[in-house]
Amino acid sequence: MKIPGKPAAKQVLGVMADGTELRIANLGIEKGEVAIYSLETISLPARLGKLRTATAAQPAAVDADETDIFGFEEGEGVEEADSKEGEQGEHEGADLSSTLINVFAKFPLKKTKLAVNIPEGQATYYSFESDFGLKAKKLQKRLREEIGPLAGGTLDSAIIDHFKTESKGLMVVVSEGNIPLIEELIDIKNFLAGGVPYFCQVSSNEISLVNLVRATMDPQPDQITAIVYIGNEFSRVIILKGDEPISFIQAIREGYNSPQVCQTLFSKILLEQEEAGIPEIDQIVLTGEIGITRAHQFFSKQFPDADVKPITPGPLDTSLLKNEEIAIFSNYAIPVAMAWEALQKRNPRWLKLDLMPHAVKEAQKPFKVAWHGFAMLGIIFFFMALLTYQGFNRLNSIRSLEESIALKQSSIASLEPELVKIGQLQRQININKGNLEFLDALIEDPEKWSRLFAKLSEDFQKVNRIWIDHIQSTPYGFTMVGKALARDRVPLLAAGFQGVNLKRVTRVISEQGNVIYEFEIDAEIPPPLEPEPAEHEPVSTDRIATPGGSIAANSKSPSGTGGSFAARLPEEKKVPPSVKTTPKESNKSLPETPEKNVDQKIEPMAKKVEKEEPIFAKMNKPESNAIGIEKQQPDLVDTKKRVPVTAQVKSEKPQIAEVKKTKNTTVEQKEKRASAEQAISISKKDQTPIDHYKQGLNLIHKRDIKGAMAEFQTLLNENPDIAKAAAAHYWVGECHYALKNYEEAAREFEVSLDYANNPKRQAGMMMLGMSYLKLGQKEKAGEQFEAILKAFPNGEFAKTAKRKLAELTG
């Protein structure tokens, strides 16, 4: 019976029938080891096989004419005796079946197999010196022929099996084939609650005892061991030499209830030693009921030189047994051995025999069919295999199509961002085209980089083993960063340029272990070739300002004469491009307007929205003393990044428009032009953030909208966290509004209003509402005007906000 909480991979019941006793050993596999779960002895109401034999034996027939010699009615006494015996047999048979049902109901027979023994006296042993050079069926046939005469009849119904000895002989075991325990269990199988019993092994008592001694005692070679078994009705002795049986002494019909059983077995041992020439006994292993018979004391006295000891469990796990069960382990030697053999069939210590009746084997086969059944099964399996093959092919096709669909969907999903990027790039290309056109209009000398690269190409032909990593524009020319394999190459390269400043030459070791020299050079871009002197007409001054804000025709130069600044100044008054003015000098050159004063001058302009004019409305009108606003360029600002084009060209050196020098230019005008040129050529990289802010305000004062926006944008790009950031965003929005870029103006005003500390909050809110109004977003404009009235009910823009709301709602 399986112990609760102790699961086993499989279990086997070793069941031994010995007269009116049934001994059961429950074994299983626990964590790779064989464990004994329980040992149990059951008393039967009758001997197994007795009733079946009595029922099968029928009385001999009696002639009808015969009469009893004493004059009694014929058959009267016989019939009465038979009737009483039959009634007693039926009663005992019912009790035996009930007992077996109750015994095996405790075991889960669906998960447990049975190993049973051949009843005592039904197994006979024969030894042969060789196997006759035969195998399998031929050997079986020869053994039947040899043993038949010795057994006194044919062996058609007998079961024969054998095992080879170490001397290459054969030990043959013959069983009559009738096993009463199996027949009784088959008869009651429908009444067993645990399921139908499955018989996995049939063994003889003698072979089971030999296997148990071989597995637990491990006899030494040439050691003579006597196995003594004392049972209920039978007892016997087996002699081993090493671990090979050499003699199966005939069993005696005495059990542990006989007081002379030990003496009888002792006599059998002495007789066998004399007849078979067996040497002195070295070891005696006691099995069976040795406690009641005091077998250990008896054989220790009779064989004082031998090692007398009871059988032990050996490597078996007995942790689940009680102490009293371990003490009587020898009583269950045979059922334990049978169950152990069934659990570990591949144990090399076993003498393997198959004594299972043929009828039992056939009955336990789960699929027993005739030839036409096998043919039908073959056809079924063929079609099942065909359908399975086709199903797998279809499944693989479906999976491949699903993978292909998933891959294409993934490709489509991955291409969507690329399509968005393509659209963005296309828009950027259009913006860049406009920017390039705008830059071409701003750059005084568009071919200067071509001249620089032509110069470098010419110098590289003379100076080799040198290369350039980076070239960047500067207000005075360019900065060049590169590497050379030799230090002397750097001065050779620098010597070909004007205004050279060799900033550094650093010796470094490359990843390959080579020595290279990194250098950085500031220089001027090669000037263009001087054209032939020619007379030029003065610049025309009859252009009319366009509504979009073209250069005013009547704009006057700072010197007071008509036209733009003159580019051709006297040689003694020109400022060399290589000369760098200090920040102090630049402050003197540029006319400064204090921030507060400029704000005071410009801020009131925001109030002019009452007359439907932006702050820079008047700047779009040509004036005699101001530079007109240039024509608005389309799409000059990236709508996502909001980076003005003027910020991209902030590193370019301010250029001076060229005009012809007139013959009547006075010395005073020349000096003013030189001073203006020197002021404009100041390096912006030396300016501080506040310088950019002041410069932007000065340019607003001078009506240079784009220049002012560039200064404020430069300030924001280089110092995004400066305190003036909110005001700078506001002025950038004012510049966009003046240029009619209302969408960009609205964005800059929104950014300005995001700052907590914003001195331009009222003006920014007003201008944001005006920008929404220009964009046609009346709902947003109304919300903005309402926000002004709520936040600043008495502010300077309150009246204008009320009027705009009235116009929107009226």
Element layout with pairings:
Elements: E1 11-18, E2 21-30, E3 33-43, H1 50-56, H2 76-104, E4 112-117, E5 123-128, H3 136-151, E6 159-164, E7 170-175, H4 180-187, E8 198-203, H5 205-216, E9 224-230, E10 235-241, E11 244-248, H6 261-276, E12 283-288, H7 295-302, E13 307-310, H8 323-327, H9 333-343, H10 358-363, H11 371-442, H12 448-462, E14 466-474, E15 477-484, H13 489-494, E16 501-509, E17 515-523, H14 583-589, H15 595-602, H16 645-648, H17 667-680, H18 689-701, H19 705-718, H20 725-738, H21 742-753, H22 761-774, H23 778-791, H24 798-809
Parallel strand pairs: 1-4, 4-8, 9-12, 12-13
Antiparallel strand pairs: 1-2, 2-3, 5-7, 6-7, 9-10, 10-11, 14-15, 15-17, 16-17
Could you walk me through the main structural features you see in this protein, from its secondary elements to its overall organization?
With 810 residues, this protein is of the alpha+beta class. It has 24 helices and 17 strands. The longest helix has 72 residues, at 371-442. The chain is elongated. The two termini are 101 Å apart.
Shape: elongated
Portion in helices: 40-55%
CA radius of gyration is 61 Å
- Approximately how much beta-strand content do the residues carry? 15-25%
**Contiguous runs where pLDDT drops below 50 for at least 5 residues:** 1-9, 51-82, 532-667, 674-685
| Count of individual helical segments | 24
Question: Strand order across the biggest sheet?
Answer: 3-2-1-4-8
The structure class reads alpha+beta
Major sheet characteristics: 5 strands, mixed
User: What is the CA–CA distance across the termini?
Assistant: 101 Å
Mean pLDDT: 75
How many β strands by DSSP?
17
